[in-house]
Amino acid sequence: MPDLTISILTAVIGFFLIFLVDFFKKWRSSVYVGIFAAIFGIGWIVYVFLEQGFLEATIIFSILLFSFFSFPVPERSGAQSQEIIGKLKKQGSREIVLSKNKERILLDFLFAGLFMGIAVLYFLFGPNSPITLVLLYSFVSLVAGLTKRIRLFRSLRFFYAEQEEALYAISFIETKKYPLKELSEASVQTRPDVLQLFPLFSLFSPHTDYTTSVGKTWKLSFSGEKIYLTPDPSESMDFVLREERKKLEEIEVKPFYHQSNWKRLLGKGYFAATVKGVGAYAALLTLFTFMGISPLMTAMVILLFWIFNLWISDRVLKMALDMKEISDPQLLPIIEKVFSRAGLSHVTIYVTESVEYNGLAAGANIGRSLVALTSETLKLPLEAIEGILAHEAIHVKKRDVLTGQLLRFVLIGWIVIGIFFIHETYPNLLKNHQILVFFVLWILIFLLPAFQSLITQWMEVRADHLGATLLDGGNVQMAKSLTILSEHQDQASEKAIGYHVVPEEEQEAEEKDERLSSLERDSWFFRFLEFQFMSHPPMYWRVHSLRTTETGWNIGKIKLWWNSRFQESLPNWKKNL
């Protein structure tokens, strides 16, 4: 591992360079500024290489790139944003004055500061280990997120263009246009629900946070995106209250520190520190290092802590994702039929709010498992929902969640043990053969996700085909369910991308850039990436394998997937799927 001070300084340099490029491109060609930044960055990497060696220099290079590209760069210049605002005013568009107070931005600083504080304590007192690198990346991400929030808070302006029937959100960061014809739902909260809006407290991406105060908050649900904003109390929002939407009642949201939110706060904080990050493990390691506890005892305690987290994972996810048990009378008979056919009687089905179309199974064993669907998924036809439930039921029945976690732990454990063994047995190897060690590490970095993909894809294909046996329509119904799911995912994604107002010079390029459907066979390179490194096989192949085979799971299905995994990854494979 490189020196901690140099690692942190590298992250600062990355932020500084991208800020420099963004700042000076107003007066100088971005090419020249980019060349200067590249020369400066390369000079820093060369310095680290001469001071610490090849292996450390490669890690420093990755930190520099990550921090450079993490910094929130505006999509357009301030002059271009003012030009858009001028056009909107000329058209007679009405500006929606936003309520702004510093308390809202301070809440983001509070939550981010708690997790950044764990990283700082580890940097000061913890050992220099791979966890240092993970925490540094998390630290950089949080700093980038806070920077974006500050720039958004300072510059955000909303306009209602009546002629276009659209809502414009304009800031230094981005400009978006939300057509009201895409608005499906509107609601009002007494204050922003910061336990839902803070990024580390959510597994999915349920929102775009435009809130700038802790006052009345409007939640507008568009196809592919939910937005939250806090207009001034004097502002009228009647333009979203069409005839089909009755007068809205305010939904009461308590402050995060209110007694009724203590359980949510605990669950979401624990989720952020153990599932979305390594903060809890870093805190334990720092404490034990500070107390002088032996490495063997520390490793045993951390292993037990990981097993404990796996055991309570269903309850943590339930609190973190604000899950609610499904009570829809149309869905309950379907749930009962699917899970009784699977032989599962102790699985509760929940819904969690998100604009994504997705489902998940959680829990370390059948008796402590749950299945959750996103709120958007519940809008699909019942036949499609039934197929998704059948797929998740097989994941629970086969204990795929537990298998996947154990697999990840074993793989990472073997790598750590291998590195420790080499370091202890051949201490001069790392110093004398750094280039060799570098290539071996990169091979392991590629092999780890590839091997994980091998196992997880097998579980996904099995869930498709065994799940089909739980359906009245068999493979045909499962294929139709996946097709409907993919079509809605693609449409929502396309709508969300379309909300971005891009500069005129980029519009022509975007029009030429035709996006393939998930159900279409992509070029060999993207097929290679999906088949070899992703957790799911490409959707086009999953649907095809269901449509062209009989319902059931056998060795022939395994051979079909195994052959396709490699044949479809080849550039000259011409088989039509």
From TrEMBL:
<keyword id="KW-0378">Hydrolase</keyword>
<feature type="transmembrane region" description="Helical">
    <location>
        <begin position="105"/>
        <end position="125"/>
    </location>
</feature>
<keyword id="KW-1003">Cell membrane</keyword>
<dbReference type="Pfam" id="PF01435">
    <property type="entry name" value="Peptidase_M48"/>
</dbReference>
<dbReference type="InterPro" id="IPR056388">
    <property type="entry name" value="PH_YxkI"/>
</dbReference>
<dbReference type="InterPro" id="IPR050083">
    <property type="entry name" value="HtpX_protease"/>
</dbReference>
<feature type="transmembrane region" description="Helical">
    <location>
        <begin position="435"/>
        <end position="455"/>
    </location>
</feature>
<feature type="domain" description="YxkI PH">
    <location>
        <begin position="157"/>
        <end position="244"/>
    </location>
</feature>
<keyword id="KW-0812">Transmembrane</keyword>
<keyword id="KW-1133">Transmembrane helix</keyword>
<feature type="transmembrane region" description="Helical">
    <location>
        <begin position="31"/>
        <end position="49"/>
    </location>
</feature>
<protein>
    <submittedName>
        <fullName>M56 family metallopeptidase</fullName>
    </submittedName>
</protein>
<keyword id="KW-0472">Membrane</keyword>
<feature type="transmembrane region" description="Helical">
    <location>
        <begin position="296"/>
        <end position="313"/>
    </location>
</feature>
<feature type="transmembrane region" description="Helical">
    <location>
        <begin position="55"/>
        <end position="73"/>
    </location>
</feature>
<keyword id="KW-0862">Zinc</keyword>
<keyword id="KW-0482">Metalloprotease</keyword>
<feature type="transmembrane region" description="Helical">
    <location>
        <begin position="406"/>
        <end position="423"/>
    </location>
</feature>
<keyword id="KW-0645">Protease</keyword>
<dbReference type="InterPro" id="IPR001915">
    <property type="entry name" value="Peptidase_M48"/>
</dbReference>
<dbReference type="Pfam" id="PF23492">
    <property type="entry name" value="bPH_9"/>
</dbReference>
<feature type="transmembrane region" description="Helical">
    <location>
        <begin position="6"/>
        <end position="24"/>
    </location>
</feature>
<feature type="transmembrane region" description="Helical">
    <location>
        <begin position="270"/>
        <end position="290"/>
    </location>
</feature>
<feature type="transmembrane region" description="Helical">
    <location>
        <begin position="131"/>
        <end position="147"/>
    </location>
</feature>
<keyword id="KW-0479">Metal-binding</keyword>
<feature type="domain" description="Peptidase M48">
    <location>
        <begin position="328"/>
        <end position="549"/>
    </location>
</feature>
